[in-house]
Design brief:
GO molecular function (chain B): structural molecule activity
Largest sheet of chain B: 4 strands, antiparallel
Shape of chain A: elongated
Keywords (chain B): Cell cycle, Cell division, Centromere, Chromosome partition, Kinetochore, Lysosome, Mitosis, mRNA transport, Nuclear pore complex, Nucleus, Protein transport, Repeat, Translocation, Transport, WD repeat
Largest interface: A-B, 85 and 101 residues
Number of helices of chain A: 29
Number of strands of chain A: 4
Organism (chain B): Oncorhynchus tshawytscha (Chinook salmon)
Family (chain B): Belongs to the WD repeat SEC13 family.
Largest sheet of chain A: 3 strands, antiparallel
Shape of chain B: globular
Number of helices of chain B: 1
Helix content of chain B: under 10%
Subcellular location (chain B): Chromosome, Centromere, Kinetochore; Lysosome membrane; Nucleus, Nuclear pore complex
Structural class of chain B: mainly beta
Oligomer: heterodimer
Radius of gyration of chain B: 21 Å
């Protein structure tokens, strides 16, 4: 079968002339920006450039109706991956038509006998105008005289809705008491029309016999000229025996070739087998109707049970990947699709689902639905998800955490790291050190954690206080991420211990920060200065050994290295020096330290 | 497709490049007016210009964003023979209230002796790295060894070819299966040298880029080049803008081993598609984020979108074309979008909230 070819649509871009300028572009999330430009290397001035235009697809995920559809279908999709569910009706008419037909033919797979009835149902679903017209007619003053009266009756007959046809016919019968017998006869024939009932024990053959018998009866009436006086009644009779010429006369009422097809089958071959369908469809389309719209080819392909052709035509003709993706998925589930081998090994279903889900990803809230679709694409779903989930804008911490959770659930560690890093960078840029630190910890980014810890320490030196105490106090094992971070945590702990007057614990910690080389050398001066108030305490806090170590540290510090003076105020430790240390120059500062340490040492020694 | 919104770009001369940031919430435009503008998208979809500054002393050809892991960083390249790296500094509080930000220059790359025609950042897994190419045929690879210090960039490698270069594309694959690759296109009309696309691969041993392939079938000047997102494939897909649109498949021919490989991977080159619908020179090609669509722009003033179906048959699915109405008035547009408006257009008013479609009065 020839491939359906659809011409590409042309979208006009306002305010510029294709003959004079080029159209520059850049892809965005879900749209494409275009602007006028000139692609020549000379770059001469060519006048101002007014506009950049945002161009989007028409049918869209921005439509609230479609959004609802997407949400519903997502729900179904996810359920379908587990169990098959009854599919609700969709309100987009062509898609519905195709979908329902596929259901009838492929999913329900009705056998001969039921097939025609299912097809009748399908036709009725999509010809709601008949009921509307009927309502109008019946509501009128004199229904039998309404100009659409006979249209309604005949339409009902064409749809195999004999009961309704009879009900409407009664109105006419009432108007023509003289023709009572004739109307009764037709009413009888309509009532007796055999309808295959799959539930009964009647076999197809038995039904066929019954049906032929009835048909002969109707034909007999026709030959008898029983309805000769009323053209309409005679037409109905002729329809009942499947008279094609009469059917053709009512082409307008049938309106489509597939209605014609089903009606014809009802009255000529009600026991048609699925495998015979395409023959009748072909004959119809080649002799009576012209296949014009892509929709027609798709339906025809369905009647031919050519599933792949259906999907192929759908994917070309329909711009909406939702439909094709879901249809394919549905058929795949019923094991009706055989995978084509694509060059990268994926199958058609996955290809379409990937397309569909990618389209959803650009929407600010629908992207979460897309995640489930990617999850169910075993071959490429993960890599597509990895690529696209990184692009979700991290507008708020909450949103970032949501994205991270999705990544963590799928062990997408690189994406988690990347998102955390981006958030850390953003926080740092906005001077939110606590947030930056917690994001770097989450990103397990040691280098960045070091950088931020440095900033904390610098801030402390400048202001004398720590910010984000809660965070630093509760680092826990995360402290071990980087040396500088460990130091920050421990240094803060020292301050806490001092504040709680647990001086010997504080002293031990302070010392270990230097001896265990946790503290950077640049900070040692500060630490030694922190030791001063401890040394000044009345009770001895530093033991002899500890004091030795303190001296040793001091020596190490002063041996040829230039160390910055501590300039942070001492008030934080509750120590008010009798002399302003900051005014004292470097070597003298150190001398004081030495003196205090030594005096402590001597007092230790003195006490033994 | 339809035009959802029109933004008064307000450059005083032609725009040469527009670039979205990684998350699609910011955009940068650069122009022959020597400036770069940065735009931020608000929650209701409106674009606001948050920065506008002079970046070069010549036309600015391209502008591109670094990955947000490195912060808010832009690179630009210009006719003035330089490329520059810019970083956004969070401004003073009153600036913030006015919605403005400042960008400062972190470095100027002055090695080129001719117009720098393209600048592109490497994929983030390679660190903070970028490549420039120049009209005299030199491609340069730079790296900032300390990602926290954007002022320090070192020139890693210079590769000279005899052909003027117009465009660069990095292979986006972060898979360990692929060594980093750069494709460079040449718009040189010199027919003595055929093969206007060179592909370079990073060799672990030498820590340098070596030429892996020269696409000999591309003999006409190349104006743009773009690797498609890799998506777990074992091969690469490369789109080229030349006298037509071409899509190549590059298949690595032997398994690469990171250690011990002394030369670049052999690549088998196949052509996947070729379109001459533009009927003229094609100037730009670019893939959308999920690599399901390729867009091209040509001398015919159109942008065309291309798509492959599941059998890998490519088709043009949409065309964007100027509607023929002339450019609105002179370039003296008002600075603030809400008051601008040429005779042919009504712009989206900046103050009207929630409106997503621009109302356009036909000319």
């Amino acid at each position: 079968m020839e491939e359906v070819d659809v011409e590409p649509t042309t979208t006009p871009i306002p305010g510029f002339d294709s003959n004079q300028k080029h159209l520059g572009f850049v892809w965005g999330p879900g749209d494409i920006l275009v602007y006028e430009t000139i692609y020549k290397a000379s770059g001469g001035s060519a006048g101002g450039c007014p506009f950049v235009h945002e161009v989007r697809k028409d049918e869209d995920i921005y439509s609230p109706i479609l959004r609802k559809l997407f949400n519903e279908s997502h729900h179904i999709f996810v359920g379908l991956q587990r169990i098959r569910e009854d599919l609700p009706m969709y309100h987009v008419s062509s898609l519905e038509l195709i979908w329902n037909l596929c259901e009838v033919l492929f999913i329900d797979a009705a056998p001969a006998g039921s097939l025609v009835l299912h097809l009748l149902d399908w036709v009725r679903l999509h010809k709601a105008d008949v009921d509307e017209k009927a309502r109008e007619v019946l509501a009128s003053e004199s229904p039998a005289e309404h100009q659409a009266y006979w249209d309604v009756v005949i339409s009902y007959v064409l749809q195999g809705r004999m009961d309704e046809a009879r009900q409407v016919l009664v109105k006419q019968a009432a108007l023509q008491p003289a023709a009572r017998v004739m109307f009764k006869l037709l009413d009888n024939l309509l009532m007796k029309m055999p309808i295959f009932n799959p539930g009964e024990t009647q076999t197809l053959t038995e039904f066929d016999v019954k049906w032929r018998h009835w048909r002969e009866e109707v034909d007999h009436c026709l030959q008898d000229q029983s309805f000769a006086s009323n053209r309409h009644l005679e037409d109905i009779c002729k329809i009942l025996v499947g008279d094609e010429d009469v059917l053709l006369e009512y082409k307008e009422l049938l309106s489509t070739w597939y209605h014609f097809l089903v009606t014809r089958l009802l009255f000529s071959h009600p026991t048609v087998k699925p495998t015979e369908l395409h023959y009748y469809a072909q004959v119809l389309t080649t002799t009576l109707y012209m296949i014009q719209k892509p929709l027609d080819s798709i339906l025809l392909a369905a009647f031919e049970f050519d599933i792949h052709q259906v999907i192929k035509d759908c994917s070309i003709a329909l711009n909406n990947w939702w439909f094709v993706g879901h249809l394919t998925d549905l058929l795949d589930h019923c094991k009706l699709l055989q995978s084509h081998n694509l060059h990268f090994g994926s199958n058609l279903r996955e290809f379409l689902l990937l397309e569909y889900a990618s389209g959803l990803f650009t929407h600010h809230s629908l992207w979460q639905l897309a995640v489930d679709y990617f999850d169910h694409c075993p071959e490429f779903g993960r890599v597509y998800l990895e690529l696209q989930i990184e692009r979700v804008p991290l507008d708020t911490e909450r949103k970032a955490l949501k994205v991270i959770r999705i990544c963590e659930q799928r062990q997408m560690t690189e994406q988690v790291r990347s998102i955390c890093k981006i958030m850390a960078k953003k926080a740092l840029r906005n001077n939110r050190l606590g947030s930056a630190l917690s994001w770097s910890i989450r990103a397990k980014d040691a280098a960045f954690a070091t950088l931020i810890s440095e900033r904390f320490l610098q801030d402390y030196c400048a202001k004398g206080t720590f910010s984000d105490l809660d965070l630093i106090d509760n680092l826990g094992p995360a402290m071990l991420l980087s040396d500088r971070l460990t130091f920050l945590g421990k240094y803060r702990e020292f301050h806490r211990l001092y504040g709680e007057k647990r001086f010997s614990d504080a002293a031990k910690l302070l010392l270990s920060l230097m001896t265990a080389k946790i503290a950077p050398h640049s900070f040692w001066m500060t630490l030694l200065t922190d030791a001063l108030p401890l040394l000044e305490q009345k009770e001895v806090i530093f033991s002899a050994d500890q004091t030795h170590e303190l001296m040793f540290c001091l020596e190490e510090l002063t041996s040829g290295k230039s160390v910055p003076t501590p300039d942070r105020p001492m008030q934080v430790l509750g120590y008010t020096p009798p002399y302003p240390l900051s005014n004292v120059c470097f070597p003298f500062n150190l001398l004081i330290h030495c003196f205090i340490i030594c005096s402590n040492l001597y007092s230790c020694l003195a006490r033994g | 497709m339809f035009v959802a919104r029109s933004i008064a770009a307000d450059h005083k001369d032609l725009i040469h490049d527009v670039s979205y940031d990684f998350h699609g919430r910011r955009m940068a435009t650069c122009s022959s007016d020597q400036s770069v503008k940065v735009w931020d998208k608000s929650d209701n979809g409106e674009w606001n210009c948050t920065a506008s500054w002079k970046t070069h002393s010549g036309s600015v050809w391209r502008v591109t964003w670094a990955h947000p892991e490195f912060g808010q960083v832009l690179a630009s390249c210009s006719f003035d023979r330089t490329a520059a790296v810019w970083e956004e500094i969070v401004g003073e509080s009153n600036d913030k209230q006015r919605g403005l930000s400042h960008w400062i220059k972190r470095t100027t790359l002055v090695d080129s002796r001719t117009s720098v025609t393209d600048v592109k950042f490497a994929p983030k897994h390679m660190g903070l790295m970028l490549t420039t190419c120049s009209a005299d045929g030199v491609m340069r690879v730079y790296e900032a060894p300390d990602v926290m210090n954007l002022s320090q960039w070192s020139l890693q490698q210079e590769i000279s070819s005899k052909l003027s270069c117009s465009c660069i594309s990095w292979s986006p694959s972060s898979s360990r299966a692929h060594a980093p690759m750069i494709a460079v296109g040449s718009d040189d009309s010199n027919t003595a040298y055929s093969g206007k696309v060179h592909i370079y691969e990073y060799i672990e041993n030498t820590r340098k880029y070596a030429k892996a392939e020269n696409l000999m079938t591309v003999t006409d000047p190349v104006h743009d080049i773009a690797f498609a997102p890799n998506l777990g494939r074992s091969f690469h897909v490369l789109a080229i803008a030349t006298k037509d649109v071409r899509i190549f498949k590059l298949i690595p021919l032997r398994k690469e081993s990171a250690v011990g490989s002394s030369g670049p991977t052999k690549l088998q080159v196949q052509i996947l598609a070729q379109f001459d619908n533009h009927n003229s020179q094609v100037w730009r090609v670019s893939w959308n984020i999920s690599s399901t669509l390729l867009a091209s722009s040509g001398d015919d003033g159109c942008v065309r979108l291309w798509k492959a179906n599941y059998m890998d048959n490519w088709k043009c699915t949409a065309i964007l074309r100027g509607d023929g109405s002339p450019v609105a008035g002179s370039s003296s547009q008002a600075a603030v979008p809400s008051t601008a408006g040429g005779p042919q257009h009504v712009l989206l008013q900046a103050s009207s909230a929630g409106r997503k479609k621009a109302q356009l009065i036909p000319g």
